[in-house]
Each structure stands twice: as C-alpha cells, then as structure tokens.
Amino acid sequence: MSAAVESFTPPARPGPMRWLKKNLFSSWLNTLLTIASVAFIVVAGLALGRWILVVADWSPVVENLRLYAVGPYPAEQMWRVWVIVAMVSFLAGVSGGRWGGIARTFALALAVAYGLLVILPISLEYLPLASRLRLAGNILTVGLGFLLGRRLAIKGYQLALAWAISFLLTLLLLGGMRNAALAPYLPLVESGRWGGLLLTFLLAIVGIVASFPIGVLLALGRQSSLPVVKALCVVFIETVRGVPLVTLLFMTSILLPLFLPPEVRIDRVLRAVLGMTLFAAAYMAENVRGGLQSIPSGQVEAAKAMGLNGWQTMLLIVLPQALRVVIPAIVGQFIALFMDTTLAVVVGLLELLAIGRAIINSNPQWLLLDKEVFGFIALVFWVFTFAMAYASRRVEAAVGLGKR
Amino acid sequence: MTTSSSSLPRFLTRKGVPLWRDVVVLQWVAQIISALLVLGFLWFFISNVLTAAEARGLGLGLNFLRSAAGFPIAESPVPYDPSRTFGYALWVGFLNTLKVSVVGIVLATLLGLAAALARLSSNWLVSNIAGAYINVIRNIPLLVQLVLWYFAVFQRLPAVHDALALPGPIYISQRGLYMVGPQPTGTFGVWLLFVAVGLMLGYALHRYLLSYQVRTGHNRYPLLVGLLAAAGVALLGWFAVGAAPLQLTTPVLGRFNFEGGVRLTPEFAALLVGLVVYTGAFIAEVMRAGIQAVQKGQVEAAKSLGLNPFQTLRLVVLPLALRVIIPPLISQYLNLTKNSSLAIVIGYADLFFVGRTIINQAGYAVPVFLLIMAIYLALSLLTSAVLNLYNRRVQLVER
Prior knowledge:
The complex is a heterodimer. Chain A is an all-alpha fold. Chain A has 2 domains: 74-189, no CATH class; 196-404, Orthogonal Bundle (MetI-like fold). In chain A, 74% of the residues lie in helices and 0% in strands. The longest helix of chain A is centred in the C-terminal third of the chain and has 31 residues, at 310-340. Chain A starts with a helix and ends in a 5-residue tail after the last helix. Chain B contains 13 helices and 10 strands. The relative contact order of chain B is 0.12. Chain B starts with a helix and ends with a helix. A 4-stranded antiparallel sheet of chain B has the order 3-4-5-10. By secondary structure, chain B is an alpha+beta fold. Chains A and B meet through helix 3, helix 11, helix 12, helix 15 and helix 17 of A and helix 2, helix 4, helix 5, helix 12 and helix 13 of B.
C-alpha cells in the first residue's frame, strides 16, 4: 500500500500524440469512426466552401443590405436609425465601462461588428462610404462611452434608466410625430414601413419587456392562495402554452379587430406584438414560478418574523431572490422569442424572413437564389442567437448560479 | 388599535377588526374584483363580436361545418373531394397534422438518440460533429429552416423525367418522393383488429411471465414470449382474412408523372425533414442530459451483481435515465406537434392550413379559430395528463 503511494507520480501532461491516441484511435472501432468523420468533414467542407466561394451568387444579399437591416424604411429618414444606432453604441460603451464583464464583452463585440462592416469587401455602391464612415464613428462612440463609463461615478440604476429611456426614444424616433407642429422635423413613418432586422429586434425586445411584468403577475397569481385568481391565471397560462404561436398571432391580428368596437383601430405591428407578448408572458410566468418555488419557505417565515407584511415580503425578500435565479431562463426565453419573431411573416409583417422572400421575388434573376438569401438569413440568426447563448452562459457563471 | 375599531359602527368590523384590515374580507374582495374584471372584458369582447356579426353578417355558429367546403385539399390520408363538408375538411387537416407529427416524433427520436450517443462518444471528432449539429440547428429559427428545406431543396429537385433514382427503387423529383411501399387493401381494417388482439395478448403474457419470474425466480423469457405471441397472432390474421391486407406497390414512370408506389409530397417531405432535424437536436440534448444523469456507481453496482452489459443497460441505466428523459421528451413531442402548424408557410394541408383556407374562402373566422385552438389545446392537455400520470408512477417507484 505504502509502496503504491510512494511510487505514485502525477500523470504527465498528455502530449499531442497521446491525446490523438486517447481521443481518436483508442480502438479499431474508434479509428474507423475517426476516418469516417474526417472523410465527412473533408467532403462536406469542400462542397460547402466551393458553393460559398464559387457557385453561389450573392448579389441578392450584397445589393440589398439596407433592406435586410431596416426593410422599406424611407431612405430620407435613415438618419433616425443612425441616431438610434449611435445611442445604443454609446450606452453599450458606458455599460461596458461601468459594469465590466459581460457588458464589456458586448461593447467590444459591437465595436468589432462595426469594424467588420466598415471593411466589408463589397462595392461602395452597395455599402456607401458615408455609411462606412458612420459605422467607424460608432466605434469611436463605443470607445468614448467606455471611457466615460469608467471615469464617471454613474450609478447602476441610472444606467438602467438610461437604457429604458433610450428604448422609448427609439420607438418615438422610428414612428415620428402625428402632431402638426413637429411633423416637419419628425414626420410620421407608418409601422408598415418598419422592417428587416430592426423590426425583428423590436418585436423581440418589446415582447420580452412587456411580457416581464405580466409574467411576474401571472406567476404570483398562480402561487396565490385565492382560488379564483389562481384559476384565472392557470387557465390563461395553460391555454396560451397549449396552442401554437401562429394561432395566437392570427388571433390578435385577425380576430382582435372583430372583438373590439369598429372605431378602435390597433396598428398591425402592435397587434403582432400583442400576440407575442401574451405568448411570452405565459412562458415567463412558468419561468418565474420556477424561481419562486426555489426560494425556501424559511425566507418567507423570517420576513414575517421581522414584521414585514405580505407585499413587503414579496417585493423585498422573495421576488429579488427568485428573479435572480431565473435570469438565465429569461435570457433563454428572449433567444427563443427572437427566433419566433420570424412567425410574424405569416401575419404579413416585413421582418427579416419576409424581406428575404420579397427580395427573391423582386427580381426575376434572383428567383432561383433562395439558398443564398435564406442561407444568409439563417447565418444572421445563428450569429445573434449563438452570441446571446454564449452571453447567457457567462451571465450565469457571473451570477454564480452554477455553484449553488 | 382596539379603541379606534371599537369606535367604528358594528357593521364595519368583524371580530373587532375593521373590514379593510381583515385578511379574509380583503381576499374575497380581491377575488370578486378580479373575477368581475375578467368577466367585464369577456362581456366587452363578446358584445362587440355580436354587434360586428350583425352588422357584417359574420357567421358565429358551428352550422357551417355541415355545408360543402368547395375547395380542394392537396393531400389527404382519407378520400376527400370539394363536395365534402367543412367539418370533414377540418378532419382531413387534423389527420394530416397527426400524420406529420407521428412520423416526425418517431424519426426525431431516432435522430436525437443517434446524435446524443454521438455527442457522448469518446471519439473527439464524432462528439464534436454531433455538437456542431446540435448548436447550429438549435440557433436557427425553425421557420427559416423550413423555408430553406422547401424552397431551396425540395423545390430545386430535378423534374419528373430526370428524377434521381435510388435503389429500392426510390425516385426523387420535384413532385415528391416515390418509393416502393405497402398499400392497404380492403381487408386491412380486419387485419388491424388481429394485430390489436395480438398486442394485447402479448402484453398480458409478458406481464404474467414477469410476475411468475419475480415470484419463483424461473426465467421464462417474458419479453421474447410476449413478442412471439403478438407476431404469431398477426401472422395468423394475415392468412385468416383471405386476401392479403397489404400489397406492395412499385412506382412506374408514366407519361406525366409516376404511377403507383407510395408518394411523399414535397410539402410533406420538407415539413417532415425540417421538423425532424430541428426537434432531433433538442431531443439529443434531452437524452444526453438523461444518460449523463445516471451515476457511475449504478453501473458499477450492476456489474458487480453480475449483470451483462445489455442487462445493465436495459435494467439499470435505461430506467434511471428514462425518468429524467421522459418529461422533457414529451414536451419536445408536443412542441413538434405545435410547430407543425408552420406548415402554412410551405403549403402542407395541416389543420391550421385548412382552417386558414376556410376563413379565406368562406369566412367564419371566429368559430374556425376557436375550434382550431381548442383542438391544439386538447392535444396538449391530453399530453400533460399522460405526463402527470407517468410522473406519479415513477415517483411511486422511487420510494
């Protein structure tokens, strides 16, 4: 026994040969699998590479970058979109400087993305110099925000407030003014002209933000000791979760006008957002309920022993802990909602997928290029969702949930 | 406190507490108010619909289900023509939804299992290829994938006369996939009865022999005997019904299209492939988590008891893993069924598509929608009921 202990030496760091032997060639079956995998990768990689570089005709993608980004938003009003981009860049920079960690990664990723777009190797005809300069300016904006965020003693809640205000400002800027006095400066842009990635993001963000309070209320209602309230919440949650999102979208887009007095007209985008929000709220409620159930009852009892009343217990003790636990689930839900925005295509909104179809149909020469267009859209979605999934894993690690 | 409440008139207090501080009273008030609010909203909606119905001649009842549909449906598992009723058209749509869901669930489970095993493989390359599949597919919206499959793959297949011929024979062209397959004949229904009886008999035998083995310790091969009994009855039925209940049909290229054979339309194929590939990635993650949840000690204990690898898998690993796997797996099945409603984008005639067609052609938006939502809801409630039953059972087994 003691001899064995004395002769024990820590295993040497596996060299590359050893690693190969262990992971790829440990048995004849494994070797066979490795050879098959290599063959598959080579064949598939070559075919894909050849298609991307030689066969594919990327003109419907390259020539319509603006459509993918903002849809049919009026060209002469594009400055509003640029203002929004600058605002987000600045706030992302400040947040990165103030909060560090994942916010810094986000700011950095944003700057890198701008940089890549600036040097995108396509003709100046399709991505003009002015746009490239603006994008380069946004890199500086991120940097400036970052420096300010590190220097200024800005408080967390102030920054959160700034994000909230910027969100409202975004909606205001995009939509414009009905008011006659202000209309010359900020004319109305009908929501029918919002589109592309902009609309995709807008739908997802509005959906998740609006669904949050509703979802929390529903979760609390479902946990409630009041039978009527509980029953109402359960019926709502289970009904919405039990039907496909498409039916809900149709419900709010086509049926809702019938359920309202004829003089009430709700904007088409808003109706789709409503459907998304109801859908997201039911799932949010289930996420939050998971968080609520994870709070030990000792917390509630302790709060009561301290003399807090029901509301105080809920708002000061239970909810803050519960919501912290469900942050990863909410991020996951946001990613899912972001992908689900594509369903808005079936109720006629011009989000990214619909734009793709419109582009293919706009030019007879592009009719056979669906692989390129939809492949590009798939790539765009993949980049964003993969980045968000990565970020959510980082947040999870930062909040320290994995360790509990 | 007591002084202030005792100074109140009697009817404003209960047991000496003012009513607005009495928890029981407050709770009742809250419930009544919320119920009234919801009822008020419902009343508002319903009265608006009724007004609109009167003003615009909107059909609200279900009587329309009995009138003739008047539109064709591209594919149907049961005989259909436009003279059939709206109700029957919806039934066809429901069957189509069921068809793509059931086939999709089976294939997605197989694909998910394969991907999960590959992901857990000790071979670094195999594991990473499976990981790439899972991570790429799960991060692209299903609708984008469906559109890619349909428009970029199945619509770009060669024309009928240049169809790809695979051994089988299987012919793949723009018109869909034609292959050799069984075609039910007139005696198929009777034969199905035999199969059902056989399955029940086999199951009963299996149960009996298993309990016999538990009681006495003598192994009478319950699984094998049960399967053989079921197969025997089915075989007996095959010859007992007279004409063979299933006939093999082979596709032959005719003048304009293939004739005979089993056909998968491009819409069905695209929807099926899209759903299977997408759901398979999620199922792979579910299964991987379940298999990894089985502790190493369980396997070692099984080995030390003398179980062989197959017995270890069947009697120890699988039951433990399944307990973790089944609930999320069933919710994936449900997702697949609900996601099949995206068929509307590529024009597969599922329940939602047929409902949409009825609304476009004839109106009746409100009842059709409520009916469709009720059907989907019934499916998912049924699923969660089954799930709850299962959960209760495994919980009982646990302790």
